[in-house]
Specification:
two-stranded antiparallel sheet; 10 helices; five-stranded antiparallel sheet; single chain
Length: 346
């Protein structure tokens, strides 16, 4: 008997019916599954809605799981420096004991403010301006041995005269040791920049280092619109003292200039009386300071000093009433801080 592989007509209709049933059953089951997942999804969004907080929690990096001081990575955590604390037996010194309008004392390492009086009031800073001028001058990479002639601007100056020839190095020292106005203007002109552009860069630099309440209008400080807060001046001093060339000049007690044109030698004393010892003090070390005075500013002074165990503080005095008062008040508040604050062992 032979097998017939050709389906009969009745079998064809039976197969079609069975196939239809299978398709309908598949569609039905698929519908049930889809409904179940939609329901589950609805339950998830109802019980655990996605919020900004949950996204941040998922995507943020755990500090505990991240190596500290990772080299080559984007995260580089620094160790926290313990800040000095006021001794429990000490009473904060009254601001009324100082003639200065604004004062700040800041711990060098931790950045903690240890004493403050009107630290956020803007005040004319006069020749403290020259610290920022020096920072911008360094950016221009001066050719120090080259010579140039002193500008003929009519500005107050006791150290040099228009037309005298000095090296950039000599002018630099005259600027920071003796606070010469003609010297700093001559250095600015020697850069080849327009003075307006130089001052613009001074203001940009101030923003870059965090001096948010500072304004410069000239490189000398003679313009009373050159203003800053005592808090900002502390930032400026700290930044300036990061540069050896600035430090070396600020720590030069005296220097001399010789004018070939006038055949005359000019002696220059540093304007920092603490450095010279003209205002006696107990500081173990002075890392550098800068004075400033115009009639609208009163007598200004900023300095970094160190005690006998190596603790460094930055002091800012703005608007003292007498020339010697800025140094005496810096000494007074500095010595008080060292006597009344306790530094943790490092």
């Amino acid at each position: 008997m032979s097998l017939n592989f050709i389906p009969q007509e009745n079998n064809r209709f039976g197969n079609i019916w069975r196939n239809g049933v299978v398709v309908l059953l598949f569609i039905f089951i698929a519908g049930l599954v889809a409904t179940k997942y939609v329901s589950l999804a609805g339950t998830v969004f109802e019980t655990a809605p996605v919020t900004t907080t949950s996204l941040v929690a998922v995507t943020s990096v755990s500090v505990q799981d991240t190596p500290r001081n990772t080299i080559g990575g984007d995260i580089n955590f620094e160790h926290t420096v313990p800040a000095p604390q006021l001794s429990s037996s000490s009473v904060m010194i009254s601001p009324d004991e100082f003639t200065a309008e604004s004062i700040v004392v800041k711990d060098k390492l931790s950045g903690k403010i240890l004493y403050a009086k009107n630290e956020y009031d803007e005040h004319p800073i006069a020749s403290i301006t020259k610290l920022m001028s020096a920072l911008v001058l360094l950016e221009t990479s001066p050719n120090w041995p080259t010579s140039t002639q002193v500008v003929d601007d009519i500005v107050e100056d006791t150290h040099m005269y228009a037309g005298d020839t000095y090296t950039l190095e000599e002018l630099w020292n005259a600027t920071l040791v003796g606070s010469s106005n003609k010297a700093v203007l001559t250095l600015v002109d020697a850069t080849g920049w327009k003075r307006e552009a130089f001052v613009e860069r001074m203001n940009q630099k101030a923003e870059e280092i965090g001096m948010s309440n500072t304004h410069f209008f000239d490189p000398t400080g003679l313009d009373e619109r050159n203003t800053a807060t005592a808090s900002d001046v502390a930032i400026l001093l700290s930044e300036a003292l990061r540069h050896n060339r600035i430090c070396d000049a600020l720590l030069t007690k005296e220097c001399s200039l010789y004018s070939n044109e006038r055949d005359k030698k000019q002696h220059i004393w540093n304007t920092d009386w603490l450095l010279l010892g003209w205002t006696p003090n107990q500081f173990m070390q002075i890392n550098g300071g800068k004075t400033g005075y115009i009639p609208s500013s009163g007598y200004n002074f900023t300095v970094e000093v160190v005690d006998d165990v190596g603790h460094a503080i930055d002091i800012v005095i703005l608007g003292a009433t007498l020339p010697q008062a800025r140094f005496e008040e810096a000494k007074k508040i500095g010595e008080w801080v060292f006597e009344n604050y306790i530094w943790a062992s490092r």
